[in-house]
Structures are given as C-alpha cells and as structure tokens.
Design a protein that fits this description.
- Keywords: Metal-binding, Zinc, Zinc-finger.
- It comes from Monoraphidium neglectum.
- It holds the Pfam family zf-C3HC4.
- This protein is α+β, with helices and mostly antiparallel strands.
- It contains 4 helices and 9 strands; from the N terminus they run αββαββααβββββ.
- The protein folds into 2 domains: 93 residues, Herpes Virus-1, CATH 3.30.40; 50 residues, no CATH class.
- Helices cover 21% and strands 17% of the residues.
- The protein is elongated, with a radius of gyration of 22 Å.
- The N and C termini lie far apart (51 Å).
C-alpha cells in the first residue's frame, strides 16, 4: 500500500495533542469539539487536512475537472499551490471510487484521445493504448464501430481507407 509523504499517523480515538493544535484548512473545525475533524494529513507545504475533507476532495475530483490533478490552491503568502499526493486517493477512497478517480485522471492526462461519436454513449477512448495505425475500433461503452483516424462512426466515416 502507498505511504504518502507528509501523512500524519492516523488513529482511532481522540486527537493527539499535536492534532488538537492544528486545524483543517478546508473546514476549520476545532478537533477538540469535533473529533472527526482531527488533522490526519499534512501537505508538503505545511497545510493540514482532516480525513473527511480530503476524502470529499478526491470524491469531487472526477466530476469537477478543475480538481484534477487534485491541486489545493491556498491563498496565503506561504504557499500558492501544492500538489496533493495522488496515492492518498487509494488510501481514502473505496475501491470503486478509486477506479472512477483513476479512469478520470487517465482521461484528463491523455494527449491522444477521442470520445465515442454515439451521442448516447460518448465514452472516452484512449488512442494512446490502441495499436497503430489507427483504424476500426469497437467502442468499449456501446460497441459501435468507430474510425479512430477521423473519429467518426462507421460506416459514415469519410476516410479513404474505408472506401
């Protein structure tokens, strides 16, 4: 399992004295009155997060592309932005949530991609993983035959290779 840098020990039970002095930069809850808000992660820049807020950030990221890669922008004179270790997602999310997170991250980082031309599908197709030369491909979402060269559905494709 991944051991992220800057991670404070996570424990069950009351917050430690060190954690009691710290506050999550997202919720600002007092861990003395809200034990669930005890800081469990510290970013390399020194900003602290409670378990719940970091989970919420990773859960929101697949539907909010501005969060991928997950970046915290802190408007202080200490730090402007700090990348959050993506390995934390694996620790915090349920397996199904983590799969969705990873798939969305792959989609956003992929330079050569297309989406199924079927409006009801629109599934992401990673062209970097397909054999070259590009050509006919069955969509993994709906099974439609698509031309990965011109990114249209077959047989409506206008590429010379299919004429």
């Amino acid at each position: 399992m991944h051991d992220p840098k800057g991670k404070l020990p996570m424990g069950k039970g009351p917050p430690s004295a060190e954690q009691q002095e710290r506050r999550c930069v997202a919720c600002l809850e007092d861990p003395l009155h809200h034990p669930d808000a005890a800081v469990t992660f510290q970013l390399p820049c020194g900003h602290d997060f409670c378990n719940g807020c970091l989970k919420a950030l990773f859960r929101s990221a697949p539907s909010d592309t501005s969060l991928l890669p997950v970046i915290l922008t802190v408007t202080t004179n200490v730090c402007w932005s700090s990348h959050i270790d993506q390995g934390l997602a694996e620790l915090l999310l349920r397996p199904q949530e983590y799969e969705v997170f990873q798939a969305r991250l792959e989609e956003l980082e992929c330079a050569d991609k297309m989406y199924c031309p079927e409006a009801a599908c629109s599934k992401f197709i990673n062209l970097e993983k397909l054999p070259r030369p590009l050509g006919r491909h069955a969509c993994g979402g709906c099974g439609a035959d698509v031309c990965t060269a011109c990114k249209a559905r077959l047989p409506a494709c206008s590429c010379m290779m299919w004429r």
